[in-house]
Amino acid sequence: MHNINDRIEKRIELKAPVSRVWRALTDSQEFGQWFGVKPQDPFVVGQVTRGPITYPGYEHLMWEVVVQKMEPERLFSFTWHPYAIDPNADYSAETPTLVEFRLEKSAGGTLLIVTESGFDKLPPQRRLEAFRMNDGGWAQQVKNIERHVVSGT
Description:
The chain is α+β, with helices and mostly antiparallel strands. The protein has one domain (4-151): Alpha-D-Glucose-1,6-Bisphosphate, Chain A, domain 4 (2-Layer Sandwich). It has helices spanning 18-26, 28-35, 124-151, and strands spanning 7-14, 48-52, 62-71, 75-80, 97-106, 109-117. The protein has a 6-stranded antiparallel beta sheet, with helices on one face. A hairpin with a 3-residue loop joins β3 and β4 (75-80). The longest helix has 28 residues, at 124-151.
């Protein structure tokens, strides 16, 4: 039974081939261009990728994910600590959330389904805000990847 506040899901139809969307997701440098980070390493299953956030107002923060799955042109997933914006906080004891990017071929190009789950495992005082901020964040990020793969900006 999933709590309503445990899972975020965003769907977007992208007018671009699956191979193009896959590259935008899994080439860490390209991912960084639309997502607003500067990854220092490529994405490798089981490995940590980190880098400074380039999004205005958050440049003092380090972005860090652990890649979980890379099933070519189908599924890319990683875990991270959501909305970890206090540079003085230690989030390492928290259970990270799971972010999944699923790709399906569609009539118009690619259906991208982004889900983030596991908010119910966060400390209660952080749970609602992390959910709310990331819900808004993913709404924006699916627009960012759309702009990136469709118009190349």
